[in-house]
Amino acid sequence: VDVRTGLPVVGMVGGGQLARMTHQAAISLGQSLRVLAESPDDSAALVAADVRIGTHTDLSALREFAKGCEAVTFDHEHVPNEHIATLAAEGVAIYPGAAAIAFAQDKRLMRERLGAMGAPVPRWRTVSSLSDISDFGQDVGWPLVAKATRGGYDGRGVWMLSSPADAVELVESGTELIVEERVPLLRELAALVARSPFGQVAAYPVVETVQRDGICVQVLAPAPELPDALSIAAQQLAIDLANELGVVGLLAVELFETDAGIVVNELAMRPHNSGHWTIEGARTSQFEQHLRAVLDYPMGETSLTAPAVVMANVLGGQPGGISIDERLHHLFAEDPGVRVHLYGKQVRPGRKIGHVTVLGDDMTPVRARAVRAARWLQEGTP
Amino acid sequence: VDVRTGLPVVGMVGGGQLARMTHQAAISLGQSLRVLAESPDDSAALVAADVRIGTHTDLSALREFAKGCEAVTFDHEHVPNEHIATLAAEGVAIYPGAAAIAFAQDKRLMRERLGAMGAPVPRWRTVSSLSDISDFGQDVGWPLVAKATRGGYDGRGVWMLSSPADAVELVESGTELIVEERVPLLRELAALVARSPFGQVAAYPVVETVQRDGICVQVLAPAPELPDALSIAAQQLAIDLANELGVVGLLAVELFETDAGIVVNELAMRPHNSGHWTIEGARTSQFEQHLRAVLDYPMGETSLTAPAVVMANVLGGQPGGISIDERLHHLFAEDPGVRVHLYGKQVRPGRKIGHVTVLGDDMTPVRARAVRAARWLQEGTP
């Protein structure tokens, strides 16, 4: 514990916006998040008091970082699994554990395990050669989705293949791949749960996520007109996965909604973009919930604070135009009710630099306001 | 501006819980609050990245602190007025300005000015000798309320006088005093507004404040069963005062509700305990609103996020019992919906160490939950 406060210290590996927003939540709990950042200019390092500079692949840096922490957790899933296992063996309370996070780090492992559990997944196979892809395409039909088994995010590490020819370069690059059928989806959903070491699991309302170029651009909470049965099925699936995989902390299950029900797309084991709406839109934010989970506190209430909540990501726009500060002025003048979250990140086209959240009674106008607000910050015009 | 983010830097003088919660709000706006703290263990210094150590009475420390800030503001009202004037003359955007904050620093000035404006105030007079008190008591009746003109807070600097004899020691101590009639109050209210340099003013719903031993222990938002006319009168009074006094930033007007209407008790020009409920209970928190005001951003929406919101302060209890961390576990198990804010402060009996907020549809159960939660954290028993 922090001897100055008598309250626990949580360390988060990675200094991105998830750590930044987790620090905000930690402050309410009387804590100050310890952050392992690559650079003092990282999003979380700009705002946190207890920042250590180091690399998540460096075991000795991780070991030093963990000293004095009641719990260590992650802003991303790139810490080598063997390092997580080593620290746990040395007595560090590090969550999610190596056995669990492996399923968020490696899509092949995830698909195998989910298949074995009987969870709904797309048809898929591992790839050792180009002919594996051709054969699979012949079985399930083109196009196919190829995914790097490790390291992909925000649309990176995912490729649409219309024919075997599309795969030649990819296979030659030596990237470890799986291929999946392209699921005929109605829309994408996400089910977010948190699980503590004690085994308590709390589930948030199921949301709709809207992607563009593989990047989440909007989240609608709750998912509009989602039948109760599907909503319950999605929550139950996420709860089962959290229990089966032994997740501690948050688990975000990205889902496809299809005519036949839900299918698991991806897993993430950390605060997740599909849960940013919870900061204002749920009684307990995902960031506080993650802290409560890794510290084995009882979970917080997950209910909505308004009938309709929409989060829209702010992506970096093209260079030029008015400054981000001026954009903020204009946006605040136009819509005094929008909630803004800026991450302190340098603007690069397509990079997530912030998000906005709007709450209200009806999804349609709430969504329109959120989209407009995000566009203001992104493009400097309404 | 912070060259790393392109966003403004606000400096706050004082490292207490108000600065701590303002830093939390600054993070959402892409900023990192710069804090001038007395000690690295101050509440805000524990969580903020940009902390300077120095004393608010030291002009050169203030001058150094202000360098590179787009705006400088305060966590308390103890910065010498002449230092504020000096910095402003040197080109620092320091808010509220010396002319305005004087009315929050000096109760005699405040009473004179409000009287001249025709604002409703208790009958009062300045004190140069014991006979001033006796005479005034004979005019308005005993008991009287004596107040130190400067430096009082949380019940300090306020004395109830039943007779002239009660005042002897006080007058002999040389404390500069005013005396006021004891207003026959029904309850206490507070009206919170924010004003920008541009002149925009935003008003929050009027709240009821419950005091014990001169310390605010509960805030009920909105003030239950407050007639519309009184609510509008209180808001209008606070708006008029903000405009007349040239306040920039937050202005909290503490009011007595009497049979004859409202009477001004005190003014505060900073985020205020009567506004902590706004973190979850209003669309824009008072901390964000204060930042928006001192940066001359357009003001945020002030509407309630739930029909009933109650904030209860957590005061330090007697030493002993289970740790604050264990108390938090128990509280979270008992009420997963309560919002907790701990300030990272050492526990001392009667010291404000945190607060809790509960939101809901009906004031009575919401209030009961908030009181119970605060008691858990305070006493370690339900």
Describe the protein.
2 copies of one chain form a homodimer. Chain A is an alpha+beta fold. Chain A has 12 helices and 17 strands. Chain A has helices at 17-28, 59-66, 81-89, 98-105, 107-117, 130-140, 168-172, 228-245, 278-281, 286-294, 324-334, 363-379, and strands at 10-13, 34-37, 50-53, 71-74, 124-127, 144-148, 158-161, 177-181, 185-195, 201-203, 207-212, 215-221, 249-258, 261-268, 308-315, 339-342, 352-360. In chain A, the strands form 3 sheets. In chain A, strands 9, 10, 11, 12, 13, 14, 15, 16 and 17 form a 9-stranded antiparallel beta sheet that branches. In chain A, helix 1 (17-28) links the parallel strand 1 (10-13) and strand 2 (34-37). In chain A, helix 1 (17-28) packs across helix 10 (286-294) and helix 3 (81-89) packs antiparallel against helix 4. Chain A starts with 9 loop residues before the first strand and ends with a helix. The model of chain A has no long low-confidence stretch (mean pLDDT 96).
